[in-house]
């Protein structure tokens, strides 16, 4: 069944068929490797290895083309180069689309590329996953988008599980074959003319693998799409569905044609294929006896390389505001459905407030007030808990980064829209966390009873959690993995606490480390807590220490000893707000650089 046309431009692209060719393609690994020993970096040369060497092949519209070969043959690398995911400066030779040099940015929006690993949100349902992909990549009304997704779900054979969550591993999610179909559907939702799929049958049983390849075959025939996939060990049934096989071995093309022509080549080479033996697997086993195919481009084809294809410009499908709304809705569902993050944080905030409040409620002097040292300890521990608790979101950020890189590389939306929507959704969620912590702990500890002091304390708590969340988001965009992320974030948090002024007074910090004092996320809220408790008119009459029945230290005098001024009650909030914006801006710049590097 034909998908509904979403716009004249979309219809034009669907009617156009695309032939993909590679001419003398070569890609080699770096000939330098680095060794780190006893604190010294050493660089050594190693023999250059060609991952791909003089690869010339083609894929026709309406055909199902498979890139086959043993592990390490260069299958995925060839697909990555065609998809434009490997820098052109590292590749020699040419990739042609309809006899024209490929324009990477345009081709990424024209084609759909499905990687081997399924980068999907586990908390979203199958239908929601495809809907959000459609909202971000199509320019049409909501009803038309929903209808289009329903048709696609039916074509993918996912009707039975459309309301089921994707899940992860064996976590009550959909099956591996169904996950693979969803990943394919995410790239099919904008009806691309070219589909590139890396190992669509990997990890699937024979029936699921056959079902996925059958689906691709029907799309190639019925829609005239150009479909290229990599495959390792296809069964007999899958082999019968393939129109063209590109057989690679050690980076060279051994065969580029039909299965029958491969069988003929084997017989001509003197090989007798044993009964019940897969032709392709047998060809891989005797690959060294096959003559490498190295067709040379004609003079006309060489001249074509001088031309540049003139395509359609592909602006973003949605406005900036629409992108933010779509991403915010998706992000809200992910947070709300991630029980480990949502419910755990709420329960943690309530229990921590109750436990901490009941611990400090009994640490009072004769006047019923907490001692000065006990209060300062309470403030310090509260900040330690609040600033360290948001690092739990690191795995979520890292998972989203993979999906962000894939979606933005295909021109689905802007990086700025992602960062803004992420920030907006976390604002109310973290406000709830701050309120649930503040209400029990503030009154149980017995801090100042003025209502404005209570609201100010809650505001500082909220700002602290936002700072921590922005800090985590920033470094999740920077670090390569979870282990390094936790190490870096925990280490920096420890440094911030050390230089906050609680352990070492500002005047005692060496001058060459004083910058860490001003960069500390602990310093400013810690001072806010002290001003809120010991400042103002009541602070001038609040006695903190007595000697022989005479007060020797009042609240305002204590603040003066700490070199804290009343005006810092609001200026510190401004600095904290600047930290929140600064880390979010830095997060945007890092993500933009990563995505820009991928797109180019």
What does this structure look like?
The chain is of the alpha/beta class and 600 residues long. It has two domains: 297 residues, 3-Layer(aba) Sandwich (Rossmann fold), CATH 3.40.50.300; 280 residues, no CATH class. It is 54% helix and 14% strand. The chain contains 23 helices and 14 strands. A six-stranded mixed β-sheet has the order 8-9-10-5-11-12, sandwiched between helices. The protein has a four-stranded antiparallel β-sheet with strand order 4-1-6-7, covered by helices on one side. Helix 12 packs across helix 16, helix 15 crosses helix 23 and helix 17 packs parallel to helix 23. The relative contact order is 0.09. The N terminus is likely disordered.
Number of domains: 2
CATH topology group of the largest domain: Rossmann fold
Helix segment count?
Answer: 23
Rounded mean pLDDT score: 81
Find the count of extended strands (DSSP E, 2+ residues). 14
In which order are the strands of the major sheet placed?
A: 8-9-10-5-11-12
CATH architecture of the largest domain: 3-Layer(aba) Sandwich
Largest sheet: 6 strands, mixed
Shape: elongated
> Pairing-aware structural class of the strands and helices?
alpha/beta
Q: Return residue spans where pLDDT drops below 50 for at least 5 consecutive residues.
A: 1-14, 32-41, 294-311
CATH uppermost class of the largest domain: Alpha Beta
Percent strand equals: 5-15%
Supply the CATH superfamily name of the largest domain.
Answer: P-loop containing nucleotide triphosphate hydrolases
Overall helicity: 40-55%
Head-to-tail CA distance between termini: 36 Å
If you compute it from the alpha carbons, what radius of gyration comes out, rounded to the nearest whole angstrom?
A: 31 Å
